[in-house]
Give the backbone structure.
Amino acid sequence: MTAFAVPGVRGEVWRARLDVPPVEIGAILLLCPLLLSVAWWNGFPITFYDTGAYLEQGLNGTFLPERAAAYSFFLRFAGAASSLWFVVFVQALMTAFVIVETARAEVPRLSLWMLLGIAAVLTLCTGLPWYAGQIEPDCMTAIAVLAVYLVSFRSERLGRVRCALLLAAGVLATAVHPSHLGLTAGLAIFVVLVRLSVLLLRGRGFRTNARPAMAALMFALGLGLVLLGNHALTGRIFVSETGAVFVFGRLLQDGIVKRLLDDTCPKSGYALCAYKDDLPETADLWLWGEGSPFLELDRFDGTRAESKRIIVDTLRRYPVMQAETALDAAVTQFATFETGDQIEPQQWILYPDLKRLLPDQLSDYMEARQQTEPIDFDTINGVHTTVAVLSLGGMLFLMGWNAARRRWDAVALPAFVFVALLGNAIICGVLSNPHDRYQSRLIWLPTFVMALTVADPTGRAFRASVRTLSLRTPA
């Protein structure tokens, strides 16, 4: 094997380090095929039930209140009309970029060979490629998390150009889904709290580099992109017109809505009083089920005002029940992260949209594995969930181990990822309702953190302590 013919790169290719720019760029490009491996195996980008709605909004300019305008415009400008492969390639490129920059910032001496090995582990053992190759904004969740982390804690190691690119990626990732907007805001607040802790506890040896200004800017620009996208479609400025309806769905699923209607109807005058004995059992059936009262009441437009009123009324009447169910939803969401949630044949809903919007791509879509044969996610999740649980446990151990030794710089990434997992679970579980895909889209991050720790040439002390601990533990 020959060496790279560029200054600063010596030795064999597989030994080349990420802190050399040509190797850095090469690593980003080499990661893309791995991240798209599932889509290539499928024969077509992975689709979701929401894919058609995003395409309709992006390509036709039809406003759909339940879908983020920013992701719809992303589909348009990424070339969805010509080929959905362009879209997933851009998503894979963005994902590869934040992975490489995180590895470069945390382990500058990491070799190209080791990074490709880490990427192979993430491809085989986590749901990462299922999201990078899917026409859905879920792959952007982790991009937002890592981008906030890098510009807040590692800007000095990355330089202005990389930080600017990370800021741009983070702004887009923040804007493509309402939950991302909340997550970025929460992470920016966390960075502020870390900065304040540094100022208050400096005398006790607590030191870490935290720069909240960049995180705050990412949130502000992401919010601006959301407002701009909504204005482009409607001529109005707003963040979301569906938040209350999704929260209502969770309250219905938890039985709070039924209790309110039983206690107050008909005196309260709710339109739902007429349906109180025929309410769907779950939020999904309420929002998307055939024959749901939600459809009869004119969906989002017809239920928005009453949903807000019911949320306020239930908070006032049943605060303890609200708190208990919210906590249960957050805990459930934190522990719910199987790969493959609703990745199944969807032509009954997507075929008309693709035939009308992307007729040249319809035959490839219909011939894809997702549409022609069942995918065995039981076997896949036998690996993915096991790896996720072990990685999460290892990451928490790593965080505690470094904190006990006051290695605050090494605590930063695992602590930040853990806070992101908690925040995502709270936002998605409480403000919507628990689904595997909401947490699955982030659960590959602990595996990434642990892989970087194992691969770090300077991490020998940690690995030695783990070996010592395992030898001391009785069989």
Observations:
- The two ends are 44 Å apart (CA to CA).
